[in-house]
Structures are given as C-alpha cells and as structure tokens.
Amino acid sequence: MASLISCPHCGIRPKEEFTIRGDASLTRPAADAGAEVWYDYVYLRDNPRGRHKEYWHHSSGCRRWLVVERDTATHAVHTVSDAALAKLGGAA
User: Fold this and answer.
1) Of the candidates 11, 12, 20, 29, which lies 20 to 30 Å from 78 by C-alpha distance?
2) Which of the given ranges, 1-10, 20-29, 65-74, 82-91, has the highest pLDDT on average?
3) Reduced to 3 states, what is the DSSP secondary structure of residue 38?
C-alpha cells in the first residue's frame, strides 16, 4: 500500500512526490559564529525515535517547502504544514 502525504496546496499525494531534506528544529547559526558551531550545524545530527519535524520538499508537485511531523519508528505522518507559514509563526 502506498504511503500518502496531505500537501496543504495539492491535497493527498503519494510520498514518492516528496524529498526529505532534514531536521526542521535546527536553528542556523549567526554568520559570525565560530568554525566549531558551523561544523556541528552542518555535520552533526540527532537520530530521534518517535515524533519528529522534518523539512520536506514537494519536488514533483507544487515545489513548496513543507514541515512534516512524522514518527521515525512507524513512518506515520501526523501533520503537514507550509514551511513559510511555520517560519512566520503560523501552524507547524
């Protein structure tokens, strides 16, 4: 059975239309942050078990960035929201 994602712009679509891009909870360091801070930001990642927010790109659809909350153990998708709205303090 194909997994489906509910895109807020395109409706329910197969997961193959999307590309996972990474952790949505990371905060980009300031431009003048030290090399160690940038190294940690670029290369070091947690591998959480359970609910986790990730950036996904609807690469074969509306081409919008989304924040997808899914369970990393079961792959169940719980919420999907537009990443631009999340950045502005909207739903995420």
Assistant:
1) 29
2) 65-74
3) helix
pLDDT, tens digit, for every residue of 3-57? Answer: 899 999 999 999 999 999 989 988 899 999 999 999 999 999 888 899 999 999 9
CATH class belonging to 4-87: alpha beta
Q: If residue 87 lies in a helix (H) or strand (E), which one and from where to where?
A: helix 83-87
Range 46-52 contact pairs with CB under 8 angstroms and sequence separation of 24 or more: 47/72, 48/72, 49/73, 51/78, 52/23, 52/25
DSSP label at 5?
E
CA distances (Å), origin 58, targets 11, 66, 77: 11, 7, 15
Q: Domain map of the chain by residue range? A: 4-87
Q: Is the pTM of this model over 0.85?
A: no
